[in-house]
Amino acid sequence: MRIGVFVCWCGSNIAKTVDVEKVVEAAREMPGVVYATDYKYMCSEPGQNIIQDAIKEHKLDRIVVASCSPRLHEPTFQRCVEAAGLNPYMVEMANIREQCSWVHDRTPEATQHAIDLVRMAVAKVAKNEPLTRSRLGITRKALVIGGGVAGIQAALDIADAGYPVVLVERTPSIGGHMAQYDKTFPTLDCAACILTPKMVDCASHPLIEIWSYSEVEEVNGFVGNFEVKVRRRAKSVDESKCTGCGLCLEKCPVKDIPSEFDEGTGTRRAIYRPFPQSVPNKPVIDRDHCRYFQTGKCGVCQKICPVGAIDYEQQDQVVTEKFGAIVVATGFDVWRDERAMAQFGYGKYPDVISSLQFERLMNASGPTDGKIVRPSDGKTPRSIAFISCVGSRDEEHGYPYCSKVCCMYNAKQALLAKDKLHDVQTYVFYMDIRANGKGYEEFVRRTIEEYGANYIRGRVSRVYPDGDQLVVKGADTLLGRPLEVRVDLVVLATAMKPHDDAKELARKLGISTDQYDWFSEAHPKLRPVEVLTDGIYLAGACQYPKDIPDTVAQASGAASKVVGLFSKEAILSEAMTAYVNEDTCVGCGLCVEVCPFGAIELVEVVDREKSTRDNQVMKKVARVNEGVCKGCGTCAAACRSGSARLRGFDTKQILAEIDALADAALAGRQ
Amino acid sequence: MSEDAVLVEEKAELESSESTQQERTWQPIILGILCNWCSYAGADLAGTSRLQYPESIRIIRVPCSGRVDPAFVLKAFRKGFDGVMVLGCHPGDCHYAKGNYYARRRITLLQDLLKALGLPEERFHFEWVSASEGNRFAELVQEFTEKIRRLGPFKGVVTPEKKTL
Questions:
Q1: Tens digit of pLDDT for each residue in A159-207?
Q2: How confident is the model at residue B10 (pLDDT cuts 50, 70, 90)?
Q3: β-pairing, A317-323 with A225-232?
Q4: Do B59 and A95 touch (CB under 8 A)?
Q5: Are residues A315 and A168 in the same domain?
Q6: What is the CA radius of gyration of chain A?
Q7: 3-state DSSP call for residue A583?
Q8: Residue B96 and residue A630: Cβ atoms within 8 Å?
Q9: Strand residue runs (E) in A362-488
Q10: What is d(CA A42, CA A51) in angstroms, rounded to the nearest whole number?
Q11: Distance (Å) from the C-alpha of residue B109 to the closest C-alpha of chain A?
Q12: CB spacing of B72 vs A654 below 8 angstroms
């Protein structure tokens, strides 16, 4: 055994606290060490050359680098020793920067701490064994969960690169929230005009399958080899026959169901498509409201359908399909907590509506054909108050975070209201104006200066009715005085929030969420589209509130990650996986039970101890599927006979670290 | 008060302050076993944030708190470490979905076992530390080190007194 120890100064980061020379001297005395040296920047090219030259010159077979955290530079030094002909897993790092020099003053104890860390690493590396990573195949087909603009963009980008995509959408049509909007800030493009062509592209793309009215039930497997169960809910309409003529939509007798798409400002029937430009443009039957399914009598749609597409007997189908990568693009929900919004009278006064409802009122394909009217009496409002930060930046009632887009859509809605109703007075109550995008600040200024919106800085304490008007009571904190404004309509900029079942989906996918249930990225700055599980990527507002440009950018980012993965010939498995010594395994199955990934199974093998030449005795042993194993080592800790072992973190390696440290640090204690 | 008495008192004061001085400077050796994804990253964050804590802790990195075999802790006490800390991800945050839940179960049993064996359970600490809790990590090391200093060096296994029924 010939161990080499390389101690890094990290400029002055380590050297100013730790006596590097002393560490080198001590390292030379450690068992198995034949060479030790130090250098100012071990990770730099000359530093790596020192290591590589020493490997050749001193015939080193194991390397310890005492520098920064292995979480930072372990891969660097693995590549470095590999280039010099060593197995990359024959290197260990002693973290003498993050966990020593940066947290201590310059004292003999700090140097002693560093020496101990090196000693532990030396003891561990002495027990290291060369490891290899096996090559695994990739299923080059992507699953995109969520058919909003994020999912649509990701699906299109992946499919355009030549890989098949399944786009799963929970509602009957793709389009998501963007399809509900009237115009988009700051360019005032009509949302439908820029979105619906993309929806149609999805539907007509030969490599994209849209599974609408479907939900992901179960996700198994790992990067390149996911196995996903999707429930395709019964639409009660045979899509292969339906021509989308819409006759059934006119004749269905159940007319008064509040439309989800119109946020309750309009109604829909029991057989419906969310909006006229739906993709796929074929209706579904809402069985909870359908008269036929509830009472057994009706069947009007079946009688009227000219092609016989209505199929009441259809059943949900659970489809299992293999995918190589998953893009999560499930988007957001809006805050609807009426009780928490009681001060604004939401849910109590019909003329207090949410911004999304207002969006539907302005939309030419909305329930009012784009006429802004009061929900209570259908009259045109002559004054409108927009209240921002309803549930956002409000720890007490809603969420502490900023929903990011409200300042902009408030400005947009105030501008468009003025555009449509020339003599309307608009008031925007705001805390701060956060207009930090391309052309955003200019847009807000335009709303104020050219469209005469009255911006009032201050929070609203109450909204109450007076006659057929509403009184908005608040304060103008710039003038420092209380304020009351009488308006015809109040629009609340309600917070963006994660879907109620976001956590459930996160569990199915094995990814993590933050305190609010937004999905967590792998690194907030450097890996914003990845999650900690390989092969799963995030796009859009399922991660945090985002506007459309950011969402589309992230969706393309996620798609490029998927395409990058698919363009590899093979993926490499984890090297530090578990294995079972089948000679000593008693087949108790405890490891099978505790494995979080279902990577271990019991198999029958010949019992070599009990078998004779004539009589073969079989026994059950545990076996690890190394492609599935993630290397957590729970099996190794659970195994009673010490048969389940974890490469890279074997019991003998960890005990060697404890022993080496104890023998040195505690020597002479007793 | 006579001069002698004053002298005696001063001397006693001096001695006691010397002994506390000694207590303060005595550096216990604490073994920390930290999961790679949360707690080890939390310890790294304490470093990058330049949070100071005592030179007492020696950290072993494991992939997951679920990897921690209770035998590691027993071994550490047999070897005479003054304290042992096991730190893992918060419930629900485990990189491997549920390794930390297994750790919690095993550690609970281990704590009972330490008691039954007459091992110093007060010298053992199990806690959740996330990758963003560098502050918390530094505080934990500080507090645990102070606790161990109060307890003094670990002198080995103590045989429990025999109880008569």
A1: 999 999 999 999 999 999 999 999 999 999 999 999 999 999 999 999 9
A2: low
A3: antiparallel
A4: yes
A5: yes
A6: 32
A7: coil
A8: yes
A9: 383-390, 425-430, 454-457, 460-466, 469-476, 481-487
A10: 8
A11: 13
A12: yes
Please report which helix (H) or strand (E) contains residue A395, including its range.
Answer: none
- A664 within a domain of the structure (yes/no): no
Nearest residue to A95 (alpha-carbon basis) of A669, A657, A632: A657
Residue A519 lies in a domain: no
- Nearest by Cα to A474 from B91, A487, A409: A487
Which residue in the set A112, A637, A659 is minimally distant from B68, CB to CB? Answer: A637
Closest residue in chain B to residue A668, using alpha carbons only? B80
Which strands make up the sheet holding B83-88, listed edge to edge? Answer: B57-62, B30-35, B83-88, B124-128
Position A213 pLDDT exceeds 80: yes
CATH 3.40.50 fits B26-149, yes or no: yes
Consecutive H or E run containing A33: strand A33-39
Distance CA B10, CA A303 (A): 107
Residue A61 belongs to domain with CATH number: 3.40.50
Task: Select the residue from A103, A105, A507, A509 to test the B interface by mutation, using most B Cβ atoms within 10 A.
Answer: A103
d(CA A115, CA A14): 13
Q: Tell me, what's the pLDDT at B165?
A: 47
The residues that bridge with A167 in the sheet, in sequence order, are A144, A210
What are the two backbone dihedrals, phi and then psi, of residue A295, each rounded to the nearest 5 degrees? -120, -15
Residue A507 has pLDDT above 90, yes or no: no
Range of the domain at A446: 333-497
Cβ–Cβ below 8 Å for A651 and B71: yes
Same domain, A73 and A167: no
| Best A98, A509, A520 residue to mutate vs chain B (most B CBs within 10 Å) | A98
Please give the radius of gyration of chain B, using alpha carbons only, rounded to the nearest integer.
Answer: 20
| Contact indicator for A509, A501 with CB cutoff of 8 Å | no
Q: Is residue A572 one of the residues assigned to a domain?
A: no
Q: Starting from the edge strand earliest in sequence, which strands make up the sheet with A317-323, in order?
A: A214-222, A225-232, A317-323
Other Cβ atoms less than 10 A from the Cβ of A105: the count is 10
Indicate whether this complex's ipTM tops 0.90.
no
Distance, CA of A180 to CA of A364 (rounded, Å) = 11
H or E element: which one contains B116?
helix B99-117
Count of helices and strands (H, E) across chain A: 17, 34
Q: How far apart are CA A42 and CA A93, in angstroms?
A: 12
Beta bridge partners of A579: A645
**Amino acid identity for residue B151 in this structure:** L
Whether residue A276 lies inside any domain: the answer is yes
Structure tokens at B77: 């006490």
E strand or H helix at A658, and its extent?
A: helix A651-665
- Total of domains in chain A: 4
Query: Counting every residue, how long is chain B?
Result: 165
DSSP state string for A202-258: HHH-TTEEEE-SEEEEEEEEETTEEEEEEEE---SB-TTT-----HHHHH-S---EE
Span A523-566, pLDDT tens digits: 778 889 998 788 999 999 999 999 999 999 999 999 999 999 99
Is residue A474 within 8 A of residue A459, CB to CB? The reply is yes
CA gap A403, A547 in Å, rounded: 10
Enumerate the residues of chain A whose CB falls inside 8 A of the CB of residue B104.
Answer: none
